[in-house]
Amino acid sequence: MYHLKKFNVTSGKYRKLFSSVAKVIDVSTDDKTNITRVYLQRPPVNSLNSHLLTEISYIMDDLEKTKCKGLVLTSNIVNIFSAGLDLTEFYKTDIQKLSNFWTTLQNTWLKLYTATFPTVALINGHSPAAGCLLALSCDYRIMLSPHYTIGFNEAKIGIPAPFWFIEVMQSIIGSRKTELSVLTGQMYKTDEALAIGLIDETAINLTEAESKVNSFFKNIIAFPGKSRSLMKKDCRDHIVQKFLLKKDEERELVIEFIMNPKTQKNIELYFKALQNKV
Ligand SMILES: CCCCCCCCCCC/C=C/C(=O)SCCNC(=O)CCNC(=O)[C@H](O)C(C)(C)COP(=O)(O)OP(=O)(O)OC[C@H]1O[C@@H](n2cnc3c(N)ncnc32)[C@H](O)[C@@H]1OP(=O)(O)O
Predict the structure, then answer these.
(1) This prediction's pTM
(2) So what's the ipTM on this one?
(3) Residue 134: which of 56, 230, 207 has the closest Cα?
């Protein structure tokens, strides 16, 4: 359950706006700029389960209502931005739970991708699969170097990345690079991600990353009117419209695919490999 609390508990730069019972997210807003930082903090690896996705979804609703001037999406977990979807949502589940989970993912992604305010992903850790999607769905990406990785690794698990994951990546790095990337399940190191345009800037530490985040917002915050958000909508609308058209059909395909015993076996093997890695 998510609660919006508008209380001024901090005397410093940021005021706390939100709190959630399980605290899988921490949120703070800069009083002067009205830019909000959202910290994912679901141990151990910020994997996206129904609860975390629902929390993100509520926050997106609240930020739209409170006329937020900008969002920075980042992580409070050391070395991890997000490990992508929580694979336990797929494993030994039932149709109703899976259906609810997928709908939550779809709706939450749509809110992030169509946010009317500027969004920045400060990628301060590994970011596979849906973790990568979260970052790609923001307007700008700054990633810490050198040893983190980002990309769509779904092929390695034996589950296809959905068409909208792929189309979001295509819109950023182009069709050929996306095809190469998803078909090989490639995870890119920070500098490689920069070279193919998957991220916009690198930073050697958090201080440099924050300074780059501030420069990004400084450039655009004074833009008058709604022209920026109108153009963002135009740039993304072809993906959004296709997504809306196929959303329900996709959910059924996902259920069929995930519930298939062969897929269940692949997920089981992947889990075992994760747990047994040296
Ligand atoms: C016709 C077709 C129709 C379409 C069909 C579509 C079907 C659905 C499409 C779904 C698309 C999927 C998107 C996804 O996001 S799937 C998730 C992909 N994510 C991963 O593969 C990440 C795996 N994890 C890692 O690589 C590492 O854990 C990581 C680099 C993130 C961190 O490494 P680190 O060494 O720090 O930590 P550990 O590996 O030891 O992990 C700690 C514990 O966390 C567990 N873990 C890790 N990742 C996940 C996860 N994604 N879900 C659940 N649990 C996860 C890991 O097992 C460890 O657990 P234990 O402590 O119990 O061992």
Answers:
(1) 0.94
(2) 0.99
(3) 56
pLDDT at 22: 58
Tokens representing residue 151 in the block:
């990309």
Q: At a CB cut-off of 8 Å and minimum separation 6, what does 59 contact? A: 2, 18, 25, 27, 38
Q: Which two tokens stand for residue 79?
A: 């070395």
* Residue 85 alpha carbon to ligand 1 centre in Å: 7
Count of residues making up the chain: 278
The verdict on the CB of residue 53 being under 6 Å from ligand 1 is no
**Among 74, 80, 130, residue whose Cα is nearest residue 102:** 130
The residue written with tokens 């850790």 in the block is 125
Residue 272 alpha carbon to ligand 1 centre in Å? 11
Cβ–ligand 1 contact at 253 (below 6 Å) = yes
Element (H, E) at 131: helix 130-136
